[in-house]
Give the backbone structure.
Amino acid sequence: MASSVVLASSPLPRHIGIIMDGNGRWAQRKNQLRTQGHLEGLKTAKKIVKAASDLHIQFLTLYVFSTENWKRTAEEVRFIMGLVKQYLKAELDFYRENRIRIRHAGDPGGLPRDIVRELEEACEDTRSFEGLQVILALNYGGRDAIVRAVGRWLDSLKKIEKIEKKPLEKRVPVKITEEGIRSCLDNPDIPDPDLIIRTAGEYRTSNFLLWEGAYAEYYFSETLWPDWTEADLRVAIAAYQQRERRFGGSKP
Ligand code: IPE
Ligand code: IPE
Ligand code: MG
């Protein structure tokens, strides 16, 4: 049985990303509103955060709301934003007890002000915690993240131009490097994900961690997100432990 999966202590993925999909279908199958699916999905997210923390995973990125999810009805969007706000407020004691640090990936610019405020507070209040780091990908898009990184780079060049009072084109051309782009991403200190999980039987990235996920191992689960449990997480990690990662090299 899944719950009896005993995990080897290594290799444990340092960073897991989860595309938490299937909330809407879960609700529809039960003749409930999609919003009920999101409510159940939030409960699952809490369980999986605790499980990841207990397993001593270092980083967990949860895909909460994509840059494309604004296409949904205003009612659904409002409901999801409300849930996020409620979650951030209500869970502070839980983060404290478990030494969990909250972080954000995505564009705060496009989010409602009150959500940004709650996010900033949660990030600030948990900044010193040394346990699991939970990165909430909220108004997050992989392409958007790369565009914003390049924008940051350009801004820093403009600052140099201002200080040196020399137009950029008169300077030695700046070399564009992978490391340079990486250093301008939202959370450059966080290692690339080792394992990316997608639930609900969909087999696509939907714009999640495009840059960082270049060499992630993918694990797909048929189970809808609200039905996911700690046992499913253990099965996914066990599958990861069977993979041989070569990063483009050849078999040793
Ligand atoms: C994932 O579940 C949650 C978000 C994208 C916010 P969905 O709402 O996409 O559920 P399905 O895919 O419609 O079942
Ligand atoms: C991806 O799921 C986004 C999140 C889980 C937050 P979607 O349900 O939005 O993706 P598509 O539309 O099926 O690709
Ligand atoms: Mg979906």
Q: What stands out?
A: The helical segments are 23-29, 34-54, 74-90, 92-98, 113-125, 142-164, 178-183, 230-241. The first strand starts at residue 15 and ends at 19. The pocket of IPE (ligand 2) is lined by residues 19-21, 63-66, 69, 202, 204, 206 (CB under 6 Å). Residues 13-141+192-241 form a domain with the Undecaprenyl pyrophosphate synthetase fold (CATH 3.40.1180.10).
